[in-house]
UniProtKB/TrEMBL annotation, chain A:
Keyword NAD among UniProt keywords: no
GO terms of biological process kind: Mo-molybdopterin cofactor biosynthetic process
Entry GO CC: molybdopterin adenylyltransferase complex
Family membership noted in the UniProt record: Belongs to the MoaD family.
Keywords: Nucleotide-binding
Keyword presence, Cell inner membrane: no
Provenance organism: Natronospirillum operosum
Name recorded for this polypeptide: Molybdopterin synthase sulfur carrier subunit
Pfam families: ThiS
NCBIfam families: moaD (TIGR01682)
GO molecular-function term, one example from the UniProt record: nucleotide binding
UniProtKB/TrEMBL annotation, chain B:
Subunit structure, as described in the record: Heterotetramer of 2 MoaD subunits and 2 MoaE subunits. Also stable as homodimer. The enzyme changes between these two forms during catalysis.
The protein's name: Molybdopterin synthase catalytic subunit
Pathway participation: Cofactor biosynthesis; molybdopterin biosynthesis
Similarity field: Belongs to the MoaE family.
Listed EC numbers: 2.8.1.12
One annotated GO biological process: Mo-molybdopterin cofactor biosynthetic process
Reactions performed catalytically: 2 [molybdopterin-synthase sulfur-carrier protein]-C-terminal-Gly-aminoethanethioate + cyclic pyranopterin phosphate + H2O = molybdopterin + 2 [molybdopterin-synthase sulfur-carrier protein]-C-terminal Gly-Gly + 2 H(+)
Gene: moaE
Single Gene Ontology MF annotation: molybdopterin synthase activity
Organism expressing this protein natively: Natronospirillum operosum
Amino acid sequence: MTSAAEPSTAAVTVLFFARLREELPQPRLHWPWSEAGTVNELRRDIAAQGNDWAALTEDLLVAVNQEMAGPEQTVKPGDEVAFFPPVTGG
Amino acid sequence: MTPVDHVQVQETDFSVAAEYERLTAANTEDGAVVTFVGRMRDYNQGDRVQSLFLEHYPGMTERALQALVTEARARWRLGRVAIIHRVGRLVPADQIVWVGVTSPHRGEAFAAAEYLMDALKTRAPFWKKEQTEQAERWVEARETDEQRARRWEP
């Protein structure tokens, strides 16, 4: 049976911070994401738009649902994923 | 005494006297109070810094700080623990961060306070942008901060 997919959840919210936010064309994205994949797959998908999006490099830090995450962590539809440079608070 | 955590991200300044009171009021069990204040310097990497803008990740910041407090409580016997971190526009001599820890004995309070600052520096989502006389620039993370944080790894 075809599942009644909700368009609102077949995506992830992607946030960018600090220097990265300034380098990219927009500070947040609603990115189509219908099945589970990894952080690294999501990052490569977005970077593949080219131009300024190439700033989305492998060395950035990542949080999934506001917890630090590694490149192989799973991202599910509805998740909030953030990419950012090393932190400099304190 | 029930453990009390105070974790706060705010634009406004904080009062050291009021925060000391928060750690010690009606607290007769803890013989040690260790506090730390991080302040803004007017000089960084060879340049005069006129002001600083502190960006953060609302929501994650509070969770990350709370997680550090929980980790510190798992390692040391602590009474009250406080972390306050400011965001937004700051100028030299402004207070940026407050860490306060109480414990029955000083050794645990000293260790926990240092741990919290070292962990905050590398794991809490804050970013500093400096305004110098010449330009605006994002502050780069320092390897020495990473090294300090790694000292606490098991």
